[in-house]
Write a structure and sequence with these properties.
Layout (H helix, E strand, L loop, with lengths): L10 E2 L7 E4 L8 E2 L2 E2 L9 E3 L8 E4 L2 E6 L8 E2 L4 E2 L26 E6 L5 E2 L3 E6 L5 H9 L3 H4 L7 E5 L12 H15 L3 E8 L7 H8 L7 E5 H4 L2 H20 L4 E4 L4 E6 L10 H14 L3 E4 L9 H5 L5 H20 L10 H5 L5 H9 L7 E5 L9 E5 L5 H10 L4 E6 L12 E5 L2 H6 L6 E2 L2 H4 L4 H16 L5 H4 L17
Helix pairs in contact: 1-6, 3-12, 7-15
Length: about 500
């Protein structure tokens, strides 16, 4: 970063090749910022020009193009939506040019956490009984079953984190061979096999498109004491279904409670990387710090999962350059092409982001937002690219295709196997998830202070207090290990996670 020393800086330039800087505080005309006279009011977190930029010339931040000037821009002028326009990516998409070998920590020296060891060798960070519904028509039954198990009913089962319902608004009137149908299948099966679930009860209506018997046959699932199914029509109605469901979940509780936390090394952890309510500081503080933590996890043999395909748009070249092989890089480009076609068919644009909140926080184009978002992936080699909710079968840093809508994206990552989630935010978020605990990382101290009950880590200290990315990244990593061992995240402590299960629905509802 390029900022003056000795006095509190007015702005920060992230790379010497940038022709813009970001205002650390609100700037007024007549002030100096990095030796440039400010000629108009610039809000905190917004960009100011460091040099003359001609109309059509590329505006650079992170040493990358974030758009083109839509008018002539003078030094010291405010740069935002009024004079900066999105342009199609001009990036170099050469594959595998920055692939490196990870400096793995020897197995004997890997950090450990206390987790729940499953019979298949995987290790969970939580121990839930999951009530998963196949269709909206059985959603109320699923909720009523789970709601029966309050603090009193679970008091005798200290090793059980809860009985949680995962209900949704789809499951029927779907084309059986559609992307949406396959997404829902993968999500239901993925939640059922997530290491954070000790027992699973699937509840259907009976006549829906998403047939439970078909799901079990498709994925080779066998019923047993800790995996049961039922449907309302066969049970004889809602009341009988709820009563039977409560009985089944009650029978699972002693089995789940018999499991106790035991040491496991960090190679058993899979971390969902997510951001939402981003601002201009996301790519400066929280995302690079989370990327540092992701690299620490990968070096310890674990897995870090980046998602939100529309929010890497314009920065995908940074990932294809890090791909393990050309096939992996091409898979990512294929997903980008799918999204370009998908948005065009529906009258949209890949620059329909940033959101109004992002823009208020200083982000102008999806290119700027994406370059900051990719920072949370760290620096390790891209080992694989996966479809939404597809089981992740490789260690290291990987990518999972998903929309940029946070609940749908994290739902897919949990279905893919994530047992922890880390969520950076600049505008503020109160997101939480089950069965996978989520920590939230603030990009700026002002918001972290205002929303202290919701922010687990304040990465804004990198700007406000002079903390380093490495220091905050290590803090994030150590917190993740504690949460993996049972320490509740702030969202867990507030009871979040019962309404954040949102499978990605694609295709016609008929």
């Amino acid at each position: 970063m390029d900022a003056p020393t000795g006095t509190p800086p007015a702005a920060v330039r992230l790379d010497p090749r940038d022709n813009v800087a970001t205002a650390i505080r609100a700037l007024n005309p007549g002030e100096m910022a990095l030796g440039v006279p400010v000629i108009e009011a610039i809000p905190r977190g917004h960009k100011l020009a460091l040099a003359s930029i001609a109309m059509g010339e590329e505006v650079r931040k992170y040493a990358q193009g974030i758009g083109a000037a839509s008018s002539d821009i003078a030094p010291g002028q405010h740069i935002h939506t009024h004079n900066l326009a999105f342009h199609a990516s001009r990036q170099d998409h050469r594959f595998c040019t920055a692939t490196t070998d990870t400096d793995f920590i020897p197995e004997a020296d890997r950090v450990q956490f206390m987790g729940y060891h499953r019979s298949d060798g995987r290790v969970g960070t939580r121990n839930y009984i999951a009530i998963i519904t196949s269709v909206n028509c059985s959603a109320t039954a699923g909720r009523l079953i789970a709601e029966h198990f309050g603090a009193a009913e679970l008091a005798a089962f200290p090793n059980v984190d809860g009985v949680a319902a995962f209900v949704h608004g789809t499951g029927c009137a779907m084309a059986p061979n559609s992307d949406g149908f396959e997404n829902l299948q993968r999500v239901m099966w993925g939640y059922a096999r997530n290491p954070n679930c000790a027992g699973v009860l699937m509840v259907g209506l009976g006549c829906e498109t998403m047939q439970l018997d078909f799901l079990l046959e498709c994925y080779g699932i066998e019923r047993g004491p800790l995996f049961r199914t039922m449907n309302i029509q066969n049970m004889g109605g809602l009341r009988r279904t709820v009563e039977a469901g409560i009985k089944i979940a009650s029978e699972m509780l002693p089995h789940a409670n018999a499991l106790e936390r035991a040491p496991a090394d960090a190679s058993h952890l899979m971390l969902a990387l997510q951001c939402g309510g981003s601002d201009a500081w996301s790519g400066v503080t929280a995302n690079p710090a989370l990327g540092y933590a992701a690299d620490m996890l990968v070096r310890n043999g674990g897995t870090a999962v980046l998602a939100e395909t529309p929010e890497i748009y314009g920065a995908e070249h940074l990932l294809t350059a890090r791909a393990r092989d050309e096939a992996t890089a091409q898979k990512l480009m294929d997903r980008i092409a799918w999204w370009e076609d998908y948005t065009a068919k529906h009258g949209g644009s890949m620059d329909n982001n940033p959101s109004p909140g992002n823009k208020a926080g200083g982000l102008t184009t999806i290119l700027e937002k994406s370059l900051g978002a990719v920072a949370k992936s760290g620096t390790c080699t891209l080992e694989g690219v996966y479809r939404y909710g597809e089981p992740i079968d490789r260690k290291g840093f990987v990518f999972m295709d998903s929309p940029g809508y946070d609940p749908a994206s994290i739902t897919g990552e949990i279905a893919s196997g994530c047992t922890l989630a880390a969520f950076t935010t600049g505008r503020g978020s109160v997101f939480g998830s089950k069965p996978t605990p989520c920590i939230k990382i603030a990009t700026n101290t002002e918001m972290a202070t205002r929303m202290a009950e919701d922010m687990d880590v304040n990465a804004g200290r990198i700007v406000s207090d002079g903390a380093t990315v490495e220091e905050v990244g290590t803090e994030i990593f150590n917190l993740l290990l504690r949460v993996a061992s049972g320490e509740p995240s702030l969202s867990e402590a507030q009871g979040l996670g019962d309404y954040e299960f949102v499978p990605w629905q694609v295709g016609a509802v008929m």
